[in-house]
Write a structure and sequence with these properties.
The complex is a heterodimer of chains A (378) and B (531). With 378 residues, chain A is mainly alpha-helical. Chain A contains 14 helices and six strands. In chain A, the strands form three sheets. A two-stranded antiparallel sheet of chain A has the order 1-2. In chain A, strands 3-4 form a two-stranded antiparallel ribbon. The relative contact order of chain B is 0.13. The longest helix of chain B is centred in the N-terminal third of the chain and has 35 residues. Chain B starts with a helix and ends in a 14-residue tail after the last helix. With 531 residues, chain B is mainly alpha-helical. The radius of gyration of chain B is 26 Å and the shape is globular. In chain B, helix 3 packs antiparallel against helix 4, helix 5 crosses helix 7 and helix 11 packs antiparallel against helix 12. Chain B has 20 helices and six strands. Among the domains of chain B are: 126 residues; 42 residues, no CATH class; 71 residues, no CATH class. A two-stranded antiparallel sheet of chain B has the order 1-2. In chain B, strands 3-4 form a two-stranded antiparallel ribbon. The chains are: A mainly alpha (378), B mainly alpha (531). The interface between A and B is large, with 73 and 84 residues.
Chain lengths: 378, 531
C-alpha cells in the first residue's frame, strides 16, 4: 500500500474514531446533560444513571483512543491543536473529571446534598465537553491563528476568548444538541413510565435544535465564511512537510469538494434526512429506529465537517502556508501502516465485546430495580 | 529563546499530575489480579464468602479506579497541551504505544469493569470469572504499553532522525516493543502494583482482626494477601529495575547518580550504603561502602566496570562539541534541502544532534557557544545527586521491609496463628501507605534521573515544551492541584469509610454490625465506627 492511500485511510479512521466517540460516549454525555431535568427524585435519577452505569467507562475509551490515534497518526495536529486550544482543552479535561467520580461516588453516600451535587457534576461532565469540541470544530472551519518556525515549532497567536466567536458558538450548540438528541433516544430504549415520557419530549426538542442549528451552520459556511485552498502542486506520496506548499483563503472554498465530487453532497443530505427521521421515529415511539437515526446524524455531522474541509485538517488563518492537511500532518509510512494493522485487528474485537456487554445488561432500568439492588448499583 | 521559567513550571505540572495519577495506578493493577485469585477460589470451591470478598474488595477497587481514570485522561492529553514540540518530534514513535494501549488494553479493561460490577446476576459463575480475568488482563496490558512508551524515552532505539520532517521516525517497531529497559520496567512496576494491593488487603484485614470483627472474612483475605504479597515483594526486588540499568546510556547516568559514584571504580564496584553527596567537591562526605556489591548487582559480572560521573561528563563533552556541528548542518539543510555538503556533514554527526541541542538552553546560535556555556551544558547532563541517592535508598529499604513483613505474614499464615501476632497486624495496618511512598520515589528516580532529557540523548527537556506563557501554566497547575486535592480528599474519605464499614457494606446481612440494624442498611451519614 502506498503512502498516499495510508494517509487517506487514516483520515477515514480518525473520522471513524471520532464518530464512534460521538455515538458511544455521546449518548452517555447526553444522558448526563439530561439527568438533572428528567429525573425528578433520587430513585428516578439513579434509574437514569444506571442505564449507562455498566458501559460509560468503556465508551469513554473512544475518546482516549481517538486522542491516542491522533497522537500516533497526526502528531502535528495533536501538538498544534492541543497546545493552541490550551484553555479549551483544560476546560474539557476538568469537566470530564466530574464523570468518573460522579458516577462512582454519587450513590456511595445517602445524603441528598451530596447526591444532587454529583448530579450537577455529571451534567457538567456531559454538557461542557461536547460544547467545547463543537466550538473547536467550528474554529477549525474558520481557520486558527498559528504558524510554524523553521524547526516546525508551532505558536498559537490567538486567545481563548477568540474561540468563542459566533460561528464557533453555533458549532458548539450543534454538537451539544446532537449529543443530547443521541442521549435522549438511548434513554427511550432503556427507561419507561414518567422518565420515558420526559426523554421523548427531550428527544423531540433536541432533534429539532440539531436540525435548525445544523442548517444554519451550513448556510453560514456557504455564504458567510471563507474556506482555504492549496495553490501549489501537492505530491501526496511525499514526506510530510507542512511548510512546503502555498495556501490561500478563499470565499466558497469549503463548497468546492461538493462540486468536484458530486457524491459528497450525499453526506449533508443524509444527515438532514437522518435528523428528520430521528424526530419522526421519536414521535412514533420507535426508540430503536430513532437511536439508529441519531447515530447516523452523529456520523453525518462529523462527516460533513470533514468532507467540507478536505484535505485540510487545521487551516491557519494567520499564516495559511502553515495550514495542516491530510498530506502533511501525518506520521511516517511505517507508523501509519502499523497502526492500521493494530486497528484492523482490535477494532472488530472491541465492537464484538462491547456489543456483548450491552446484550448482557440490556433491558429497561426501572425505579423498582434500583430499590431491589440498592447496594450493588450506582 | 525558550523561557526557563516556562520549562520549569511545565515540568512541575507534569510531575504533579503524574505523581497524582500514580497514586491510583498501582492499586488498580494489583487489586485486579487479586480479585481474579479470589474469584477463582470462589468458582472452584463455590463458597459464598469468597464471592463476598471479590465484591467487597471490588468496591474499594472501584473507589480507587475512578480517580485513576480521572487523572489518567490528563496524562493522555498533557503531551499535546504542554509538550507540543515533544509530541511533534517523537509522536511518530511515542504515539503508537499510547494508541495501541487504548485499542488493546484500555478498551478491554473499561468494558469489562462495567460487567464486573453490574453483571453478577446476569452472568454465570464462570462467565463472570472470565470478565474479571479480562479486566485484570486489560489493566496489566495497559501498564505494558505505557511502559514501552516510557522505556523508549529512557533508551530510544529503533528510530532515526529525518531532516525533512524535522522529527524522529520509527524504523523498527519490534525493537521498541522488546526494548530491554521497557521490559524490565514493566516487570518491576507491575510487581510493585501487586505489592501495593497485597499490603492494602493485608493491612485492612489486619484492622478487622485487631478489632476482632469479621474474623472469617479477614482471615481468608489476610492469607491470600500474605501469599500474593510475598511472591510480589520477592519479584519486585529480584526483578528490580537495575536489571535494566546495564543497558542504555541514560541508565548508566542514572546508576552513577543514584549511587553517588563520582568516579569510575575498579570492578566490581562497591555499594555506598550511606553518604552525604557533595555537589561542590564532587565527592561524598561520611561515606560508608560495602565492597563488590554494586558491581555485582549493576553488571551481573565481576569484571565489568560501571562508569562514574566524571567519566560520563567527559564523554558528554565530546558529544556536545560534535553535536554543535550537527545542529549547524541541520540548520543549513532546513534552508536548502538539496545541500549535499551539509547533508554529508549532518550524517557524519547526527548521532550527537541531541547533545548539540542542549546548548539551545543557553544560546540561540549554538556555533557561538562560549566555553562557559559548554561547561554548563556538560554539567547539566548529570541530575542532582542527593535527591537521586536518597530516593533510591529509601525505596530499596522499603522494598526489603515489605519482604520482611510478607515473610512473617506468610510464615504465620502457614502456622495459622497470625491473629495472635498483634505486632504483625499493627505493622501491616500502619504500613499500608508505604508502597505508595516507594512507588512515587521510584518514579522520581526514573524521571528526574533522566534529566536534562525528555528522550535521552535525543531531545532536551528544554526544547520539548509548548509555546505558552508561564502564566498560563501557573494557572492550569493551580487548577490541577485544586481539583486533584479536592478529589483526593473525597476519595480518601470514601475509602476510609468503606474500609471501616467492611463487608457489611454489601448488605448481605452476614457481617459485623448488621444484626443490630436489620437487613444491613447503612443509615445516612452514620459515622462508620458506630455501625
Amino acid at each position: 500500500m502506498d503512502y498516499e492511500s495510508l494517509k487517506l485511510i487514516w483520515w477515514l479512521l480518525v473520522g471513524v474514531l471520532l464518530i464512534g466517540f460521538a455515538i458511544m460516549d455521546g449518548h452517555d454525555m447526553g444522558v448526563g446533560t439530561l439527568l438533572p431535568f428528567i429525573g425528578k427524585n433520587d430513585l428516578e435519577r439513579r434509574a437514569v444513571i444506571n442505564t449507562v452505569a455498566p458501559h460509560w467507562e468503556g465508551n469513554q475509551v473512544w475518546f482516549v483512543t481517538a486522542g491516542g490515534a491522533i497522537f500516533a497518526a497526526w502528531p502535528l495536529i495533536y501538538a498544534t491543536a492541543f497546545s493552541g486550544f490550551y484553555w479549551a482543552m483544560m476546560a474539557a479535561l476538568w469537566a470530564l473529571f466530574f464523570r468518573p467520580v460522579g458516577f462512582t461516588y454519587r450513590s456511595k453516600i445517602k445524603n441528598p446534598t451530596w447526591r444532587s451535587t454529583w448530579d450537577w457534576g455529571l451534567f457538567i461532565g456531559g454538557a461542557v465537553p461536547p460544547i467545547i469540541f463543537g466550538v473547536a470544530f467550528g474554529n477549525l472551519l474558520l481557520g486558527v491563528p498559528f504558524q510554524f518556525d523553521d524547526t516546525l515549532r508551532s505558536t498559537y497567536t490567538g486567545t481563548f476568548w477568540q474561540l468563542l466567536n459566533p460561528f464557533g458558538l453555533l458549532a458548539g450548540v450543534v454538537s451539544l444538541s446532537m449529543v443530547t438528541f443521541q442521549g435522549a433516544n438511548y434513554l427511550m430504549l432503556r427507561t419507561e413510565g414518567d422518565i420515558y415520557r420526559r426523554v421523548r419530549t427531550a428527544s423531540l426538542i433536541f432533534g429539532l435544535a440539531t436540525l435548525v442549528t445544523f442548517a444554519l451552520a451550513g448556510l453560514w459556511i456557504m455564504k458567510g465564511i471563507d474556506g482555504f485552498a492549496i495553490t501549489s502542486h501537492i505530491n501526496p506520496n511525499a514526506l510530510p512537510d507542512p511548510l512546503d506548499k502555498t495556501v490561500v483563503k478563499e470565499t466558497g472554498a469549503w463548497m468546492k469538494n461538493y462540486t468536484t465530487y458530486a457524491w459528497a453532497m450525499w453526506v449533508p443530505i443524509t444527515t438532514f434526512i437522518a435528523i428528520a427521521l430521528g424526530i419522526m421515529f421519536a414521535r412514533l415511539h420507535k426508540a430503536w429506529m430513532a437511536f439508529i437515526a441519531s447515530s447516523v446524524t452523529c456520523a453525518g455531522i462529523i462527516g460533513t465537517a470533514g468532507v467540507s474541509m478536505f484535505p485540510f485538517l487545521m487551516p491557519s488563518s494567520s499564516d495559511p502556508r502553515s495550514s495542516l492537511t491530510v498530506w502533511d500532518s501525518v506520521s511516517s509510512e511505517l507508523t501509519l501502516g502499523l497502526m492500521l494493522g493494530a486497528t484492523v485487528v482490535f477494532m472488530p474485537l472491541i465492537i464484538f465485546y462491547t456489543s456483548w456487554a450491552y446484550k448482557v445488561m440490556w433491558g429497561k432500568v426501572t425505579t423498582d430495580f434500583i430499590k431491589a439492588n440498592d447496594h450493588s448499583v450506582y | 529563546m525558550i523561557s526557563t521559567e516556562l520549562v520549569d513550571i511545565s515540568r512541575l505540572q507534569f510531575a504533579v499530575t503524574a505523581l497524582y495519577h500514580f497514586l491510583f495506578v498501582p492499586l488498580t493493577i494489583g487489586l485486579a489480579v487479586m480479585l481474579v485469585a479470589m474469584e477463582l477460589t470462589y468458582v472452584t470451591t463455590g463458597r459464598p464468602i469468597y464471592k463476598d470478598m471479590v465484591k467487597f474488595w471490588g468496591k474499594l477497587f472501584s473507589i480507587n479506579f475512578a480517580l485513576g481514570v480521572t487523572t489518567g485522561i490528563t496524562m493522555e492529553f498533557q503531551f499535546g497541551t504542554n509538550w507540543a514540540y515533544y509530541s511533534h518530534y517523537v509522536g511518530d514513535i511515542f504515539g503508537a504505544p499510547l494508541a495501541i494501549e487504548g485499542l488493546m488494553a484500555f478498551f478491554l479493561e473499561s468494558t469489562f469493569i462495567g460487567l464486573f460490577f453490574f453483571g453478577w446476576d446476569k452472568l454465570s459463575r464462570w462467565k463472570h470469572f472470565m470478565v474479571t480475568v479480562f479486566m485484570a488482563l486489560g489493566s496489566n496490558l495497559s501498564a505494558l504499553w505505557i511502559l514501552i512508551a516510557n522505556g523508549w524515552m529512557q533508551n530510544p532505539i529503533g528510530t532515526e532522525f529525518s531532516f525533512i520532517t524535522m522529527r524522529m521516525e520509527m524504523t523498527d517497531f519490534w525493537s521498541i516493543v522488546f526494548n530491554p529497559v521497557a521490559q524490565a520496567k514493566f516487570v518491576h512496576t507491575v510487581s510493585a502494583g501487586y505489592v501495593t494491593a497485597a499490603l492494602f488487603v493485608l493491612g485492612i484485614s489486619s484492622y478487622y482482626l485487631l478489632k476482632g470483627r469479621d474474623l472469617d472474612f479477614a482471615r481468608r483475605s489476610f492469607r491470600i494477601a500474605a501469599g500474593f504479597g510475598f511472591a510480589s515483594a520477592l519479584s519486585v526486588i529480584v526483578l528490580g529495575d537495575e536489571s535494566g540499568y546495564s543497558v542504555g546510556e541514560a541508565q548508566h547516568t542514572k546508576l552513577a547518580a543514584m549511587e553517588a559514584m563520582w568516579h569510575t571504580e575498579p570492578a566490581p564496584a562497591p555499594f555506598v550504603v550511606f553518604a552525604l553527596p557533595n555537589e561542590k567537591t564532587q565527592t561524598n562526605d561520611y561515606e560508608l561502602k560495602i565492597p563488590y556489591v554494586l558491581g555485582l548487582i549493576g553488571t551481573r559480572s565481576v569484571s565489568q566496570t560501571i562508569p562514574g560521573i566524571a567519566e560520563i561528563k567527559e564523554k558528554n563533552r565530546a558529544r556536545i562539541v560534535n553535536g554543535v556541528i550537527a545542529v549547524k548542518a541541520l540548520e543549513q539543510l532546513r534552508k536548502d534541502k538539496t545541500n549535499t555538503a551539509a547533508l554529508a556533514t549532518f550524517n557524519a554527526h547526527k548521532d550527537d544532534l541531541g547533545f548539540g541541542l542542549l546548548l539551545k538552553k543557553y544560546t540561540e546560535d549554538v556555533a557561538a557557544a562560549t566555553p562557559e556555556m559548554i561547561q554548563q551544558a556538560v554539567d547539566s547532563t548529570i541530575p542532582k545527586i542527593a535527591p537521586m541517592f536518597w530516593s533510591f535508598r529509601i525505596m530499596v529499604a522499603l522494598g526489603f521491609l515489605f519482604l520482611a513483613l510478607f515473610s512473617f505474614a506468610l510464615l504465620y499464615s502457614i502456622k495459622g496463628n497470625f491473629i495472635e501476632k498483634r505486632w504483625l497486624l499493627r505493622w501491616a495496618l500502619w504500613f499500608i501507605p508505604m508502597p505508595w511512598v516507594a512507588a512515587e520515589l521510584g518514579w522520581i528516580v526514573a524521571e528526574y534521573g533522566r534529566q536534562p532529557w525528555t528522550i535521552y540523548g535525543v531531545l532536551p527537556t528544554h526544547l520539548s515544551v509548548s509555546s505558552l506563557t508561564p502564566g498560563n501554566v501557573y494557572a492550569s497547575l493551580a487548577g490541577f492541584v485544586a481539583f486533584y486535592t479536592a478529589l483526593l480528599i473525597v476519595e480518601m474519605y470514601l475509602m476510609v469509610k468503606y474500609a471501616r464499614i467492611g463487608p457489611s457494606s454489601l448488605g448481605t446481612g452476614k457481617y459485623h454490625g448488621e444484626d443490630q440494624l436489620g437487613g444491613g442498611a447503612i443509615p445516612a451519614g452514620a459515622p462508620a465506627d458506630k455501625i
